[in-house]
Design brief:
This protein is an alpha/beta fold and 146 residues long. The chain has five helices and five strands, in the order E-H-H-E-H-E-H-E-H-E. The strands form two sheets. The protein has a three-stranded parallel β-sheet, sandwiched between helices. Strands 1-2 form a two-stranded antiparallel sheet. The N and C termini lie far apart (41 Å).
Amino acid sequence: MKSYIKAISTYFPKNTLTNDTISEQFPEWNSEKILQKIGIEQRYIADKDECASDMAAQAVLTLIEEHHLDKNTIDFLLLCTQTPDHILPTTACIVQDKVGLPTTCAALDINQGCSGYIYGLSVASSLIASGNFKNVVLVTVDTYTK
């Protein structure tokens, strides 16, 4: 069975940190120099009390709303993070509950960083190819900066 990406949605925290703000703290680094070095102009900052599961749940809810998906058809939730809420329960299970996915929906954390999205795509594709799952949601989320 072939797999493909049906839809993509995003969530970003409301707080941002710009290169201008960083250069105020470190005058030897102007905004343009920071942009040239790392390629971004701003980064999103999670609230102090915002966890990976909060951001992931919002991303899944946005996906469901934007693409008019029936959450009862989601049969596997893969969540890739290096910043889980806890060791146990898995953050994927927390998101499953927050979003209201059915208890028949499998939920699994993948503990990876940059390459985790690629690994997640491979796992999702394999789950579909097995014939056991039809609709897999892959979420990548991290709260490196609060």
